Amino acid sequence: MSLREHALSLFRSAVGTVRPAPMLRRAVQLQGEGCPQLLVKGQAFPLKTNLYLVGFGKAVLGMAAAAEEILGDHLVRGIINVPLGIQESLQRAGMQEMLLKPHSKIQVIEGAKNNLPDAEALKGAVAIRELAEGLTVDDLLLVLISGGGSALLPAPIPPILLEEKEKLTKLLASRGAAIQELNTVRKSLSLLKGGGLARCAYPAQVVSLILSDVIGDPLDIIASGPTAASSHTVQDCLQILTKYNLLHALPCSVETVLSSCPTKPTAPQEYSHVCNFLIGSNRLALEEARCCAEGLGYTALVLSAAVCGEVAHVATLYCQLIRLLRLHLTGPDPAGGPLSHQLSGELLRLEAELGIPGLNLSEFLQALQGLEPERPVCVLAGGETTVQLRGTGKGGRNQELVLRVGLGLHRAQALEANSPPGRCEIVFLSGGTDGQDGPTEAAGAFCGPELVEEALHEGLDVEAFLSNNDSYTFFREFHGGNHLLVTGLTGTNVMDIQAILIRATERR
Length: 508
Prior knowledge:
Blueprint: H1 3-17, H2 20-27, E1 28-31, E2 37-40, E3 43-46, E4 51-56, H3 60-71, E5 75-83, H4 86-92, E6 106-111, H5 119-133, E7 140-145, H6 162-174, H7 179-188, H8 196-201, E8 205-211, H9 234-243, H10 252-260, E9 274-280, H11 282-295, E10 299-310, H12 311-330, H13 338-354, H14 361-368, E11 377-386, H15 397-415, E12 424-432, E13 444-447, H16 451-457, H17 462-467, H18 471-477, E14 484-485, E15 496-504
Parallel strand pairs: 4-5, 4-7, 5-6, 7-8, 8-9, 10-11
Antiparallel strand pairs: 1-2, 2-3, 11-15, 12-13, 12-15, 13-14
Helix pairs in contact: 1-11, 2-3, 6-7, 7-9, 12-13, 12-15
């Protein structure tokens, strides 16, 4: 198998382990007949004819199908909000296991076209709120949450209009706001986010099963934390709006709501009726990919499950890391030599600049010292980068990251022209685990050091495409589009996966 085939296999294995059905079956069981109990990660919840279900997010349709199969007749009624067109897409892809059975007790509402809140998503949010408010102390509400849940649970605090909230969210995203920042603002303007859904369901028991698409897996940020006590206040929201120079461009309705928001976080004891369970994450997906890589004969290392920051800076990090790996595998600079020392120093500087949570490059660089030159190396990472939009092109953060890595490797080869390392094969992959990267049908892309030179032969100027944020158009035109990673919708979402695969073909 080629490195590219291996990279694709690793990506598929990572995604496969966080698909809805396997996750639900690992976490949830039904136990007992006379006195049935719902077991969630070993914690028991008594059942009568009192079990209701709501959900929202890109993976929730498959989660609901698996949950209904487990719960059977104990489920009274359910409502889920899922992305527009997902049922048809999954049907067309033959993914029947992610679809609800005929005569299901769960109502499906589709909305949030292009992952933006809309009238249909609002309709679903209203229905979910009404169901939650009608519950009693004897009821149990099972809440399914995954990435994309924020756009699918829009219920702005009056007098804010949905269009005003959407416009503000789009402005923040276009200026490079991270998902944590977006969701902190959304919580301050929403009836159901920031623990609002849990408060609506009181005094019923609330049990949430959560698939994380946020770095660090903070429960109050995933889907804007509808069942978690918020750790943020209105001051945090105002600081974010100030940071992106939006504080003085707010609609009057938003100003009105922010001026009346509580200045202190909600007390945790107000959520004593809630149990939140994290059942899937990027870290879990990376661990599966690591095992798969080792099975294919690689020395496999996980860099981080929390890679974040502006895509250009993250691309530089990966380029320098690839250069260092080449030196360790093929020479001419021995481990600890001048060039290795220089690259290690640059990587540590980038680590400090990016501030990636939990990243320990000193420890990682130490591990590189023990690499066996005859064994190929696989470095895995995950997270979510941000892109500052300066152009009008079409793309996504993964495709732009891959294109920037390709350009960086090309420039590095020019620097190493006088003393090139030995030959090796290199593949870099970055893809969204939900199968969708920006407003494109691609999940991401592949590249190697030869990408820019080959593109020039085809009359394609990589830097021009990047300056217009037009990475998708580049990859669609380059080699007939065969460097695009196209998976179709996966039915899950745990942010992005990156993989560096490298093997020596000749030592200097």
